[in-house]
């Protein structure tokens, strides 16, 4: 029986998103604060409410502060042409990085950023002087939360885990579900409820043909 949707793994932790992944599509639409370094002709009507008034020629003035989806900010960003500069979202700035370094488990990641790791990894595309600190903070936050997530997934069999899962970002939720599936499969194997290994149709058909040839 075929499934209606086969989950495609996210590519957000790499250099580029995977646009066959629903998680990456949602993540790439999260807003990023930017500042225009040059006037943008004929875009004032589109950004009118966000650019604090467009010029008469419908251009977005230089120095306007906008919030653009990640995919558009990446497309417009160019170090040589300096079309726009990116401002770090608050949760990736030094203040929040200090909180994560103190105790990452106290933070409700899903509330402040449901794609915290993926979005943060994509920020490294913009060549910020804080990139090294951001990447180190992402890594240490993940390491600090990983053990608790996996311990909980292995020790919460048939229990209500909604309160715990509600605080996890989307990648962490996937890890938690993988841990619980592994535990459930192991429990089924111990009880002898695991599915039996059967020969494929190709092997069975080959045996039938072989027996037929022997009879002939």
TrEMBL record:
GO process annotations (BP): DNA replication
Q: Where is the GINS subunit domain?
A: 96-189
On the tree of life, the source organism's domain of life is Eukaryota
Q: What is this protein's function per UniProt?
A: The GINS complex plays an essential role in the initiation of DNA replication.
- Keyword entries, A-Z: Chromosome, DNA replication, Nucleus
What is any one of the record's Gene Ontology cellular component terms?
Answer: GINS complex
* Every DNA replication complex GINS protein PSF3 N-terminal domain range: 21-77
Q: How does it assemble?
A: Component of the GINS complex which is a heterotetramer of GINS1, GINS2, GINS3 and GINS4. Forms a stable subcomplex with GINS2. GINS complex interacts with DNA primase in vitro. Component of the CMG helicase complex, a hexameric ring of related MCM2-7 subunits stabilized by CDC45 and the tetrameric GINS complex.
For this entry, the protein name equals DNA replication complex GINS protein PSF3
**Which protein family is it in?**
Belongs to the GINS3/PSF3 family.
Q: Localized where?
A: Chromosome; Nucleus
Q: Which InterPro entries match?
A: GINS_A, GINS_bundle-like_dom_sf, GINS_Psf3, GINS_Psf3_sf, PSF3_N
Predominant cellular place of this UniProt entry's protein:
nucleus
Q: Does the keyword Ribonucleoprotein apply?
A: no
